[in-house]
Predict the 3D structure of the following.
Amino acid sequence: MGKLIETLKMTTPKFLPSNYKSFVYNSIELRILMNMALIMEKMETIEKSLEIMKFCMKTAEHNDNIYPEICYNLAHTYHKLKIHEEALKYSNLGIEYYVKHKNYNGISLLYFRKGIAEYFLHHNSFMDSLNKSIVLCEIFRQFKLKDMIVGNCRKFYGIEL
């Protein structure tokens, strides 16, 4: 965390985690702030992490490459909080970004997150989303990610893909 704070202080000398809302950030600085939020989840509380992540989402341009990554992290954070409607919302926003911009770098993970949210919300479409995640992993040759998704579905949710 100290390294991330020092990195932000290079461009924003008065930055502190307690005053993060006081500044305007470029894309790289937002990525650093997002990573700080992920660390804060473990150091402080998941609610503090969510607060910062929502700030990043509000601040990010909708055509910025970091936007779908923030969507994924918000979806995952809401999943941890068992707020599955919000997890589904941010998964869909990230998927929409990737489709619109024809950039599919993280779409497999977003379909996984979407499928798990749908599973908890008792949507019949959850298997479709999870299977899309697997097919996308195969298309993009993300075999380790595919194995992780299949294993996590089995281990944590009792879902066989």
Remarks:
- The chain has a mean pLDDT of 95.
